[in-house]
Amino acid sequence: MGRFTRAGAMVGALALAASLALTGCGDKQKSANGADGTFVTSTPTAAPEEPDPTAAEPSTPAPRLPVTPADGATKRPVSTEISAKVPGGGTLSEVTLVAANGERVAGRWRTDGSSWVPSKPLRYGTRYTATVTGTGPDGDRREGASTFTTMAKPGSMISSGLYLFDDKTYGVAMPVVAEFHPGIPKKDRAAVQKRMFVRTDPPQPGAWHWFSNGTQAYYRAPEYWRPGTTLDVRIALAGIPLSNGRYGNVDRSATVKIGRAFEMKVDNASKKMTVYEDGKVIRTLPVSLGKKSTPSSSGTLVVMEKQQHTTFDTRDDPNPDNRYVTEIDFAQRLTWGGEFIHAAPWSEGQQGRRNVSHGCVNVSMAHGRWLFERTRIGDPVTVRGTERRLAHGNGWTAWNLSWSEFVKGSALPVPAGGAGPALR
Questions:
Q1: Which of 209, 342, 358, 367 is an active site residue?
Q2: Distance CA 288, CA 348 (A)
Q3: Which single residue of 104, 146, 243, 270 has CA 20 to 30 Å from 376?
């Protein structure tokens, strides 16, 4: 062990001081002991710099689009449409809708851009995520998302029908006829009509007209359809809620063609039918209409049904004089009340001379066959000069109204001249 002297201690202290002084003139690092006794090295903070007036302000994240249905919404109808609003104005461009199982749902924007309509009903009791993309007023991309769940399948529904069948060809007066049981309450017709889509190629404006009790709605153009037109129809009612607690049962759709222009005009004064094809007279033939006690209806009717052979059974008629059972050939229905064009060999002697039928348009067996082989469902038949006017709704009477009268039956406003397609 060495001896301790005050002089040695002083030399050591001086040496330590010199060492510390030399260290202070190095790289300006400062050292400190950590809380656990370890050695920690830190770098001193530089003096703050003056702000650069030319530097850009830090960017603010673009606001998210508020999407409808709202995120977390539950029990949504399967007729739900997707919408969003760009804050400050702007445009929406795209919607992606994906079910929980990864299935992607196609759809189309409404023409006015108010919402995006799925191309098929959503599934009951299913979670969906909707992502909506748009452009803000500054030109920047905007996006929003929502996850929602559809309702369970309801127990109370309305049934519906569509008198069109895929890939069929119809006459130029074929209205789009949608049917509902029970009828749609008046307060719900606007919402239902917004879900009834018709697109024509070539484009032709049109309008819907509701029958008074809501059991049927017709769609037509201001004039007969152009020959060769394609009608693409979707009655998208599955899951639509009504005020009476019922829901629409299914979507119905059809894509059909309109054929050549074939028209029959019947004149009671002459007791003749004139047949036109593409505007040209192709035949004139004698007819016998309803006698005075059972007159035929005057108006614009449409061929609704064709039966090559059938039986007319009127034994439930309240008037005993009108009860009969008769085999009929080449029958073409014009009204729900039982007026037909048909072959009537028993009245061939009166055809062209006087009326003897129970309201039907009687023609000979040969002429009945000739007509039957050429007509299509949807061909127009105009009857003039009888004692009775065609009652609205007694058949597909859409064309028996003037255009100005017809549009009054719409549950939504109709632009002058008719509306275009509701979907882009």
A1: 342
A2: 8
A3: 270
Q: How confident is the model at residue 27 (pLDDT cuts 50, 70, 90)?
A: very low
SS3 string, 250-302, reads: CEEEEEEEECCCEEEEEECCCCEEEEEECCEEEEEEECECECCCCCCEEEEEE
Which of 180, 223, 177 lies closest to 204, judged by CA? 223
Contact 226/204 with Cβ under 8 angstroms?
A: yes
Whether 25 sits among the annotated catalytic residues: the reply is no
What's the pLDDT at 93?
94
The set of residues, in sequence order, having a beta carbon less than 8 Å from that of 29 and lying 6+ positions away, is 41, 42, 43
The H or E element spanning position 161 is: strand 157-162
> Is the N-terminal amide bond of 202 cis, ω within 30° of 0?
yes
Give the phi and the psi of residue 365 in degrees, each rounded to 5: -60, -45
pTM over 0.85: no
95 within 8 A of 405, measured Cβ to Cβ = no
DSSP β-ladder status, 247-248 and 116-118: unpaired
Give me the half-sphere count of Cα atoms (radius 13 Å) on the Cβ side of residue 373. 6
* pLDDT for position 191: 98
> What secondary structure does DSSP assign to 122-139, as a single string?
PPTT-EEEEEEEEE-TTS
pLDDT band at 322 (very low <50, low <70, confident <90, very high): confident
Task: List the catalytic residue out of 181, 309, 358, 360.
Answer: 360
User: CA 386 to CA 361: how far, in whole Å?
Assistant: 12
Start-to-end Cα distance in the chain: 102
